[in-house]
From TrEMBL, chain A:
Assigned keywords, A-Z: Amino-acid biosynthesis, Aromatic amino acid biosynthesis, Lyase, Tryptophan biosynthesis
Purpose: The alpha subunit is responsible for the aldol cleavage of indoleglycerol phosphate to indole and glyceraldehyde 3-phosphate.
Family from the record: Belongs to the TrpA family.
Statement: the UniProt record of this protein carries the keyword Amino-acid biosynthesis: yes
Organism from which the protein derives: Cryobacterium melibiosiphilum
Active site: E75, D86
Record's protein name: Tryptophan synthase alpha chain
Gene Ontology molecular function: tryptophan synthase activity
Lineage, highest ranks first: Bacteria, Bacillati, Actinomycetota, Actinomycetes, Micrococcales
UniProt cross-references to Gene3D superfamilies, sorted A to Z: Aldolase class I (3.20.20.70)
Gene Ontology terms: cellular component: cytosol
Catalytic activity: (1S,2R)-1-C-(indol-3-yl)glycerol 3-phosphate + L-serine = D-glyceraldehyde 3-phosphate + L-tryptophan + H2O
Matching HAMAP family: Trp_synth_alpha
Region (Disordered): 1-28
Pfam family, one: Trp_syntA
């Protein structure tokens, strides 16, 4: 693993990459980034790409291109055999990565290589069984050592997350839980209390994948999260255009784009990812 | 609301093994699902808890069992078959005689009634062998629900007749082309459908796996098998059987027949998993024999997986047993030693299928033939004094193409077509 000096391509943040929980105060780089973008009258752009697609090297280069073109937080997906929250585009990409020999250690290598080159927080998105089999503490330690900021866990609800809550307390890693339009008020409070970094507001009932219009459910959900005390709510699922990013950031703290970036990578390689990221980032400016 | 405090963590020996209601069975079970599904699972749990105590629901379900699917199913003693099992007394519980041809209808009727109570009008299901899909399509026709069944593309080919049955019953069958293109991937797509359409749609899950409340609920809808059989065997033989056997895919027919006997400590329980080409090859579906604890499809249970936690593809000649996971209650029963799980190869199962056909005139499903093959060995071990109750979970009609090919039963020309 190379952890050579960051080249500061984005020069966007001066906070440490991962949080620490010393003296009971957390310093989440993701929270700091989101707060900084909010203070600037905007919101954060969060870009998803899976590790190992179309190859390990290209996936690292593509993630670096995200940061170089204005993405504020990288969400790096670990390919998994049974991705129930993912739609066809991400399924196809992660299946290809698995067929190409993706192993979990490639995930840590990718995080290290990306954080060595750019200074934006890197969150890892993973289904739960790979973490469980790797060992929750071992996984957290290696993610921290690689410079990762934390985990987004789409199939782990706080109710089942005791081991991960403990490991993230110990390491200071962020933990992003999901909130859905169908979640009860009590569950929204639970998601907010369990999360650090941000709460992932699922824009619509469904899986990942570009959609023509962002569901009005997203705005209602963010309003409910705010009423429940959330200071960091980012919206994901179905967001693919600069206009949609602008629309989301008018009320949310961040917009998460996944399938559209994966499709750009599939169709046009790393260069196309950079172009789309720059267009999406333009959607985060001059908002309010 | 679902709370983890429900985990039964006391080390006090429970009085009965028959009171487990989830979400956890020992260390197994739970809810590892996207947040979007939690509300639906909570609703299902709450409604199920209500109907469990409702005599009107029980009466309505009982009437359907009686007048629609033909319960109680009979038991049949099979002495000519038993000659090949060391002379042990072998009794079959005939779930193959149920309407639609397997035990799957028991659960589908229960969940359809529940769907009606909740007020949803669209049902989805996953299916491997097609039996659960056929059962769900059947109850959808009966109750007037829209019905979509997800089925791995490999399974749509090897169980083509069941695809035709489901379509004739008015269901839409979606061939799933991702992953291993079998049951595991059909469940993934059904879950994706449910996440998207949960407001109108109930997921009629086909086995005792998945997130809470499915393992406990599906078991409760299947436990009628063992309750009937226990009385029937007592009436026939004057005593309880020495062993009860069943095949285990996700584990619903096995839990269904085991449950009534869980507290009968003198009754041994055997579950037979599909060993495919053999458990020393990579081509099998022997989850408890060869797996490790892990999370798949919403529950922590035993799982065939690699060191990174990626699910490993299973293999079996039987579509209904071709699943790399297993229900959490089985993982628990194995962990406490109450039930024993053993592997049965494709070859042993097919040989038992032919043996039952030719000694007793009963053609079993290939799934059920795994239980028969295991029972042949068990009988030799237990000796001629023993009585063994076997769950004959389904009939072999759906498997005639596979059997014809396997045993070369058709004339050259016909076989090629
Ligand atoms: C006849 C029959 N038996 C057994 C099974 C396996 O399921 P389970 O283990 O849930 O009983 C199936 C599944 O399709 C089946 O059709």
């Amino acid at each position: 693993m190379s952890t050579t000096s960051p080249s500061n391509l984005s020069s966007s943040t001066t906070t440490s990459r991962h949080g620490t929980s010393t003296s009971g105060v957390t310093h989440s780089a993701v929270e700091a980034t989101i707060a900084r973008r909010r203070a600037a009258g905007s919101g954060a752009l969060i870009g998803y790409l899976p590790v190992g697609f179309p190859s390990l090297t290209e996936s690292i280069d593509a993630a670096v291109a995200l940061a170089a073109n204005g993405v504020d937080v990288i969400e790096l997906g670990l390919p998994y055999s049974d991705p129930v929250m993912d739609g066809p585009v991400i399924q196809a990409a992660t299946q290809k990565a698995l067929a190409g020999g993706f192993k979990l250690h490639h995930g840590f290598e990718a995080v290290a290589a990306i954080t060595a080159q750019v200074d934006v927080p890197v969150l890892v998105m993973t289904y739960w069984n790979p973490v469980l089999q790797y060992g929750v503490d071992r996984f957290a330690d290696e993610l921290l050592a690689a410079g990762g900021a934390g985990l987004i866990t789409p199939d782990l609800i706080p109710d089942e997350a005791d081991a991960w809550l403990a490991a993230s307390e110990r390491t200071g890693l962020d933990r992003v839980f999901l909130a859905a339009p169908s979640s009860s008020d009590a569950r929204l409070v639970q998601a907010i209390e369990a999360s650090r970094g941000f709460v992932y507001a699922v824009s619509t009932m469904g899986t990942t994948g570009a959609r023509g219009a962002v569901d009005s459910a997203a705005r209602i959900l963010v309003d409910r999260l705010r009423a429940a005390g959330s200071t960091s709510a980012c919206v994901g699922l179905g967001i693919s255009t600069p206009d949609q990013v602008r629309e989301i950031l008018a009320y949310a703290d961040g917009a998460i784009v996944g399938s559209a970036l994966v499709k750009a990578l599939t169709d046009g390689g790393v260069a196309a990812v950079g172009v789309l990221a720059a267009e999406l980032a333009a959607g985060t400016r001059d908002l309010r | 609301m679902f709370t983890p405090s429900l985990h039964p963590q006391s080390d006090a020996q429970p009085d009965s093994l028959r009171t487990e209601a989830g979400p956890y069975f020992g260390d197994f079970g739970g809810r590892f699902v996207p947040e979007s599904l939690v509300a639906a699972l909570d609703e299902l749990t709450a409604e199920y808890d209500l109907v469990k105590k409702d005599p009107a629901f029980a009466a309505e379900l009982m009437e359907l069992h009686r007048s629609y699917s033909g319960r109680p199913s009979i038991i049949t003693e099979v002495p000519r078959f038993a000659e090949h099992a060391g002379g042990a007394r072998i009794i079959l519980k005939r779930e193959d005689l149920n309407h639609t041809g397997s035990h799957k209808i028991n659960n589908a009727l229960g969940q359809a009634l529940l769907t009606k109570r909740i007020g949803k009008t669209r049902v989805i299901a996953e299916t491997g062998a097609g039996q659960h899909g056929v059962a769900t399509a059947t109850v959808a026709a009966l109750f007037g629900f829209e019905c979509v069944v997800y089925m791995g593309e490999v399974d749509t080919e090897r169980q083509a007749l069941n695809v035709a049955r489901m379509r004739l019953l008015g269901a839409e069958v979606v061939p799933v082309k991702t992953g291993s293109r079998t049951l595991k991937d059909a469940i993934n797509d059904a879950m994706r459908d449910w996440v998207t359409n949960v407001e109108t749609t109930n997921y009629i899950f086909g086995t005792v796996a998945g997130p809470h409340p499915f393992p406990a609920m599906v078991r409760d809808f299947q436990k009628i098998i063992g309750e009937e059989a226990r009385e029937q065997v007592l009436a026939l033989t004057g005593r309880l059987p020495d062993a009860v056997t069943a095949c285990v895919g996700g584990g619903s027919n096995a839990m269904g027949i085991f449950h009534a006997f869980l507290d009968d400590t003198d009754v041994a329980l055997y579950g037979y998993e599909a060993a495919g080409d053999g458990v020393d090859t990579p081509r099998h579906a022997a989850t408890i024999t060869k797996g490790r604890p892990g999370v798949l499809h919403g529950a922590r249970s035993m799982l065939l997986q690699d060191e990174d936690g990626q699910t490993v593809e299973s293999h079996s000649i039987s579509a209904g047993l071709d699943y790399p996971g297993v229900g959490p209650e089985h993982a628990w029963l194995a962990s406490i030693g109450r039930a024993t799980y053993l592997p049965v190869t494709d070859a042993a199962a097919m040989s038992a299928l032919r043996l039952l056909s030719q000694t007793e005139g009963i053609i079993p499903a290939i799934e059920s033939a795994h239980a028969l093959a295991g029972t042949l060995e068990l009988g030799k071990k237990l000796g001629p004094e023993a009585t063994i109750l076997v769950n004959l979970s389904g009939r072999g009609d759906k498997d005639m193409e596979t059997a014809a090919r396997y045993f070369d039963l058709l004339d050259e020309g016909a076989e090629q077509s």
